[in-house]
Amino acid sequence: MGLASSWSVALLGLEGRIVEVEADIGAGLPRTVMVGLPDTALYESRDRCKAAIGNSGHRWPDRLVTINLSPAALPKAGAHYDLAVVAAVLAADDVLPEAQLAGTVFLGELSLDGRLRPVRGLLPALLAASRAGFRRAVVPQQQAGEAALVGELEVFGIATLTQLIALFRGEPVPEAAPDEPHPESAAVEDGEPLDLFDVVGQPEARWALEVAAAGRHHLGMLGPPGVGKTMLAERLPGLLPRLSVAEALEVSALHSLAGRPLESGLIRVPPYADPHHSASMVSIVGGGPRIAKPGAVSLAHRGVLFLDEAPEFPSKVLDSLRTPLESGTVSIWRSENQTRYPARFQLVLASNPCPCGLAATPGARCRCAPQAIRRYREKVSEPIRDRLDLQITLLPIRRALLDAALAQRETTAAVAERVQEARERQRHRLRGTGWSCNGEVAGPYLRGRLPLPDGTELIDRASESGRLSARGVDKVLRVAWTLADLDGCDVPNRAHVRTALALRSGDPSADGRAVSSELVESWLDTPAVLPGGISAAEDVATEPGAAFDESWAPVEEALP
Amino acid sequence: MSTPRPPGPHRKPPADRPTLGARGEQLAVDHLEAEGLAIVDRNWRCRWGEIDIVAAEPVPDGRRRLVFCEVKTRSGRGYGSPLEAVTYAKLQRLRRLAGHWLEARGGRAGGGEWAEIRLDVVGVLLDGGTGTPEIDHVKAVG
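Structure tokens for the assembled complex are given below, as produced in the milestone run.
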């Protein structure tokens, strides 16, 4: 009979708070009460623990057992407190030596026969415990690998309650029956890595994808069905540099919270989320009762959020992306707490030019009424489109081009190498600022602290004519810097600025040749600024896969 | 004419052998006496129910404390411990019966002969006749 404490972690989003689980065995008829704002799953912990102890050869105390979760005012949810509850009760009952529990954090759900089950959010919980000064962690054996990602913590992976008791009594730990597989591990089988080599044709789009990867720019793709928009988007994560350790910890913690098993180690490949257009606002932004769960924008943190068939998404859902696009975080408020999740994702939007998809295809007969096309395009609101740094139009590839296109294709590895080099230049230039790539740099820094590129009057003109918003000016500057980085130039030149303007002007109201110098010309209303013989433009054109020659010809003519 | 009752787990024990409950109560009495309590009454019945044991123990001011005791006996843990079988309703009844007992004896708690009253539960686990019975005495339960 007595009193003992053990420790666990309450997760409020990614933030973990230490929870002390006190167990008191006092005079009174057998009864177990649990106090301290437990939710249903946690209150049921009482019954799971009772059965688990009974089936592990021990007895739940025949007395009034009071379990207190403190701080009492903090709402607590989830089944991962089971292990801490059992440890505290067994220590209060003198089955476990209480002194051994100090400095140890317990996380795990129990089954009725005393086996341990994996829990969600183990990684962020243990990170919080480590920061709070805990030095040991007892976790389900299946998740020992995930727990080991947190350095500085001595991890004990246990499979059954019997093992826990033996461990803390200093007795030889019995072997447990082999684990059942993690119930959710089947869902994340990594398929064949996707290679850019598989994409046939689309040199402009491939090049735009490279620019997007190099500078972490948001990308909009417009094109008829079947031209490879989805294929391209899926291959973007492969072009991005692998995550640094700090980024990987952050990303892995978010995915741990969403229930993804991490026994194979930290997530080092930028994540990719492609919610279907039936997605609700909550599933995209994050939410849920009491304590909000991360949504797609957070699961795409440091990676790619791909919205295929963007106009089919409810406009409210699309517009909810506006704030996270700017701030890189989402704050979700609930009555009991506020949760902030990181959401620094790279947005890729794909859409058809009209409901039937053929409007932009030369020679195809689109039967959509002009009003229908207009309505369709306006579903992606202007504020969202304004946040896309690159807007490209894809044309269908003609059969005659397939052979030539096949010969020209590059692999992901080759492109990723150039992206990596461009990123190195950015990191070097932005060292000490906290930013690592052009897409993140704040406007004032871009305009005030970095040298202004040659040809800013092109931007001024576009801005004065009302075609470029203030945000758009910064976006064009950022893309121009990325183009310079890809070219190995120290400062963007005129051609870079012009290309950046063209890449941004992929006006869906224009026809399929949106990205063309003629368009830029008319767009700027100054035909004279585009004389031939701009050396850097040739540099761009020599980039493999790029079709940016003087005339910005459509794909058919650009290929040999 | 009555047909003979078939033998089964619920048949009555032979008349010369005490029931499980009676054996448990005797063990409880022995336990209480070993603890220094004096037995005042046993199996006191009235129309509202029965009190298993009424005992008394001295308190510092020279008077005595009345202990009303409910005894619950079980022969195994298959259906849980004996104490778990004592429900809130049973305790309520014990409390009410304590009042009736005092009324019948013309006493009252607090001011008179008795300093105070207390309700206890004694759980007796008879381990199938083998080994020693386990006695679990919980004081001041309601």
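Chain A has three domains: 3-177, 210-216+411-560, 218-388. Confidence is low (pLDDT under 50) at residues 185-189, 507-560 of chain A. Further analysis is deferred to the final report.
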